[in-house]
Amino acid sequence: MSEKRAPLIGFLVVFVVLALLWLWYPFGTPGPEEIPMTTIFPLTDNAFESQRLYAIVYWITLAIFIGVEGLLVYALFRFRRRGDETGLPEQTHGHTTLEVSWTLATVVLVIGMYIPSCQAIRYHQGPPPSPNPLVVEVTGRQWFWEYYYPEYDLTTANELVVPTGRTVLFHVTSTDVIHAFWFPRMGGKRDAVPGRNQPMWFTPTDTGVFEGQCTEYCGSSHALMKTQLVVSTPADFDAWVKQQKLPPPPESMASFGVFAASGCIACHMTMVNDKTVLHMNGPNLMKVATRKTIAAGVLQNTPENMKLWIHDPQHVKPDAKMNVPAMQCTGPGQPDPCCRDVQIGNCLPDATVDQLVSYLEMMK
Ligand code: HEC
Ligand SMILES: [Cu+2]
After folding, report:
1. What is the CATH number of the domain that holds 287?
2. C-beta 317 within 6 A of ligand 1
3. What is the tens place of the pLDDT at every residue in 236-293?
4. CB 360 within 8 A of CB 288
5. What is the largest CA-CA distance in the chain?
6. Whole-model pTM?
7. Are residues 145 and 216 in the same domain?
8. pLDDT tens profile 66-92
9. Pocket of ligand 1 contains residue 237 by CB under 6 Å
10. Does some domain include residue 128?
């Protein structure tokens, strides 16, 4: 291979590999089951509108890419140095028609993307498409999500349950730092800003469990601030609401004392499931046993994981805001380390943790 040709052939190889990769891409990518945090398989009106805009921009930029790269490759071949040519090729300067046309083409392209962008923004910022949406007040907290349904006077955490076919209108806020509320397949993100109430809505149509995530860096456990959306049939949703409103099972009453004495009630509610619970320090535990995960989607909700969590929350989630009240550490027989770093796990004997776990397992 001549020395002059080497770069050209290298370039061609890269180009062909990239082109093959691109051809393979649509067939080879995993579906939304393998990549649950995808935005390109939208499931609601709100998400579809973003996808529509994304597709317009995607095809326009793809056409530009192919055009520019095509011309580049053409020029490389057509005007390459041949034989023993020496010196500079013919030099040209300025071409009015060309310059006017690519300026105009750019303006047309930008307008072509600007108009659908404005439409999408109007749509997303506009009122929900239904006169009777299901309202959910969303509060981001370090590091979990609190959900309050005014219609049912019902508070839950991390696992958002909604029916199909009814628009859900969220009022998103935060009580500490800025978080962002996001279910990628359901629609765009919404910042959760303390003192502000940011609306957002979508209409789920498919049943299933969908992943969500805080998307505004909010501290050490930001990446562990997940959430799940459970979309149920309207009948299953009604059954869920009924269950959530049930009082605690009578057999759990005997163990409430341990929960209270361990300081858990300072931050958690297990006796009511209404607005009283809003903005307590920790998630409502009234129906914690009905949830699939604990600690904002970080652990599966099993007795072993519950034990692990209560024993050492900070080990599961760095800086978790679950600390035992300091008074807990001053009793006789308390191991010393807890008095220094007031972490809950160090203060609670194993037997107590077991009792707490069996109490919480009853909460459904
Ligand atoms: C100082 C406040 C505080 C105290 C006291 C406290 N917790 Fe927590 N707890 C929290 C916070 C905050 C979370 C959410 C942590 C996260 O996901 O980042 C939490 C989460 C939990 C969860 C997971 C709930 C879910 O749905 O994700 C359980 C279970 C739990 N706590 C049990 C207990 C028990 C049992 C006690 C008493 C031994 C206790 N907590 C004491 C603040 C507290
Ligand atoms: Cu966050």
Report:
1. 2.60.40.420
2. yes
3. 999 999 999 999 999 999 999 999 988 899 899 999 899 989 989 999 999 999 999 9
4. yes
5. 97
6. 0.85
7. yes
8. 999 999 999 988 888 888 888 888 888
9. no
10. no
Q: Chain centroid to CA 321: how far?
A: 21
Residues 200 and 266 in one domain: no
Indicate the pairing of strand 208-213 with strand 226-232.
antiparallel
Q: How many Cβ atoms are within 10 Å of 64's Cβ, its own excluded?
A: 13
The kind and range of the H/E element at 101 are helix 96-125
Range of the structural domain that residue 354 is part of: 250-361
The residue among 330 and 309 whose pLDDT is bigger is 309
pLDDT above 70 as % of the chain: 91
Residue nearest atom 39 of ligand 1, based on CA coordinates: 264
CA of 79 to the centre of ligand 1 (A): 70
Q: How is residue 176 annotated by DSSP?
A: S
Residues 238 and 140 in one domain: yes
166 lines ligand 1 (CB under 6 A): no
Question: Residue 291: CB within 6 Å of ligand 1?
Answer: yes
Distance from the alpha carbon of residue 254 to the mean position of ligand 1, in angstroms: 20
pLDDT tens readout for residues 285-325:
999 999 999 999 999 999 999 999 988 888 899 989 987 64
182 and 152, same domain (yes or no): yes
Pocket mutation for ligand 1, best pick of 267, 279, 319, 355 (most atoms within 8 Å of C-beta): 267
Q: Yes or no: say if 349 and 333 are a contact pair by the CB < 8 Å rule.
A: no
**What's the token pair of residue 112?**
């072509």
Residue 143, preceding peptide bond in cis (omega within 30° of 0): yes
Residue 316 in contact with ligand 1 by CB distance below 6 A: no
In a domain, residue 95? The reply is: no
Give me the number of domains the chain comprises: 2
Q: Nearest 5 degrees, angle CA 168-CA 172-CA 176?
A: 155
Among 192, 223, 245, the domain-final residue is 245
Whether ligand 1 lies within 6 angstroms of the CB of 281 is answered as: yes
